[in-house]
Design goal:
Number of domains: 1
Helix content: 25-40%
Number of strands: 8
Largest sheet: 5 strands, parallel
Shape: globular
Structural class: alpha/beta
């Protein structure tokens, strides 16, 4: 399966999640930046509020192409133990990498949410959305964060993932929707015709548009 762009992927995910349309207890948490484009389509089609959930990959200076883990805005940490061993990283090394990402997490929180903390999601249905995953580091950090937020249900909705990573996600959440698990897997971008980088200004525009659309009465038309 090849997606035209992230919006196309979002439309297809929304069709699979139609049962949640208009659910007053459901909310979309999108992982910036690309996940916000996907999440916007779900927000509009399902008439659900969307907010960002912030995570940052942990990369070493000598290995920028692959994440050794990720940290979320709540402080939840995911570490790839195989990468940790292969790169001979210590606990102190990981702590230093986390500190290096705190500034960007704070910048995004200030920009995308005007500095507001993440709202309580207790007893809500949380739909975690990304534009695709390779190692899954940021998504695993987001899933780990959910324990502190105490949602009623956690749903993962992503267009693309390697089959082995998808198999590791499924036991951790209530429902995991992955549209395609290509084998062999190369990169997320290889499954998109258009995979241009998403900018901060695009994220802000989509968050505002989603809020505006969600404030309107739900459309009678189906997705």
């Amino acid at each position: 399966m090849i997606f035209r762009d992230r919006a196309h992927a979002g439309v297809l995910l929304a069709k699979e999640l139609a049962a949640y349309r208009g659910d007053p207890q459901a909310v979309i948490l999108a992982l910036p930046r690309g996940g916000v484009v996907v999440g916007y389509e779900l927000s509009v089609a399902l008439h659900l509020p969307m907010e960002v959930f912030l995570t940052r990959k942990l990369r070493t200076a000598n290995n920028q192409d692959s994440a050794v883990g990720a940290v979320s805005e709540t402080g939840a940490l995911y570490v790839n133990q195989d990468a940790l061993t292969a790169l001979h990283l210590s606990t102190e090394d990981i702590e230093e990498l986390v500190l290096g990402e705190e500034g960007e997490l704070k910048r995004q929180q200030a920009l995308y949410r005007q500095g507001r903390p993440l709202a309580s999601r207790a007893n809500r249905t949380v739909i975690l959305v990304a534009d695709g995953i390779a190692t899954g580091a940021t998504l695993f950090a987001a899933i780990t964060s959910m324990a502190a937020l105490a949602p009623r249900r956690v749903i993962v909705a992503i267009p693309i993932a390697p089959s082995d990573v998808g198999a590791r996600i499924r036991p951790l959440v209530d429902h995991c929707l992955i549209l395609t698990t290509p084998a062999p897997f190369s990169t997320v971008g290889a499954l998109y015709t258009d995979f241009e980088e998403v900018t901060d200004s695009q994220v802000l525009a989509l968050l505002k548009a989603a809020h505006r659309e969600c404030a309107k009465p739900p459309s009678l038309s189906w997705i």
